[in-house]
Amino acid sequence: MARGRASTFDAQREEILAQAARLFAAQGFVGTSMNEVAEACKLSKPTLYHYFRDKHELAMQICESHVARLAALVDEVKAEQLAPREQLRALIERFVREYGLAQDAHRVLTEDVKFLAEADRERLLDVQRSVVAAFADSLVAVRPELNASTLAKPLTMLLFGMINWMHTWLRPEGELGHETMAPLVADLFFGGIAAVQISGD
Amino acid sequence: MARGRASTFDAQREEILAQAARLFAAQGFVGTSMNEVAEACKLSKPTLYHYFRDKHELAMQICESHVARLAALVDEVKAEQLAPREQLRALIERFVREYGLAQDAHRVLTEDVKFLAEADRERLLDVQRSVVAAFADSLVAVRPELNASTLAKPLTMLLFGMINWMHTWLRPEGELGHETMAPLVADLFFGGIAAVQISGD
DNA sequence: CCTACCGATCGGTAGG
DNA sequence: CCTACCGATCGGTAGG
Fold it and tell me: What is the pTM of this model?
């Protein structure tokens, strides 16, 4: 049955992407050979090339589905029409949790995007820019004075720094998890943006 | 004269390290060939190997002098015997400025340390751990209630996230520089740590 | 300090 | 004629 075969094909693709993401995250894109990816999937290399055109397509698909999930998270929160503070808190907490689930893909996105073709890199960057813009908008809704200053973007990027850096020190097996960190990051950021000096005030 | 040759030797080593750091930061450790490093320095590859034993030594030296500078910054600030808030602010602001000057080395440290030998990696990690511990101590001096909780370390790492991530979005040629960001990061963090809930309070 | 190489391994593809 | 896959090997290049 064609249906069943297609779904096996898709499932195999997903398995390959998960193994490749794990290896790329641990050893880097260039530091991982297609032989290693194939071995991790218990496939021969030619079979691996049956599922993906080349090595770059692996990294591209990993990054693309990751940023698509992030953009979808933003849309979900926006659709809930929350009050400004609740919306920003929801964005922060859901991103922290999502990053906890997608640590490998996130590391590939941040470290290996430089090895992709110009066009692919730009497309991924555009999605990331729209996600950052949504956070900045939500921040301005909470503290409207930031609109007139140039601080909304930098403060948003400091927030992303806190979240993007967590994978380097938060061990999944540790007692402190992303679930516990999510409200802490939100509390810290809310306290912070209430305290920053706005020049011209 | 032996003296003169030695200083030329050292200057050439520094030049090679700077070029290597630039290339590793832009293309990754594995993605950069020793031929590229040699060409950037206008040296032949065998000449490059006259100054450094192998490729790993380049990355190791780049990382080692970077963490040594960070540890020295901590010692300098400690020696000034500032009041708790002023000490933490000084640590934050000087680290932001130092990272602005050492963006290449910092990127090599965070992305390529995984390619070093176990022993080298552990030695670098030990220095980094002592730097993080100094920040955590300074944070506890500002907010002593954190001592009893497990929050001092996570909050310190969120702070390092903000600082460590800045190189990805703060363009050196942009109007917004590390100099302007330094006090903003400090303000945001001080506001944040005053606001976080401590369980058990 | 150069040209000329090495053992090995890379990403990708041939025929069957 | 299709898919899914194999053993073997391609042309180039890596670090040394």
Answer: 0.92
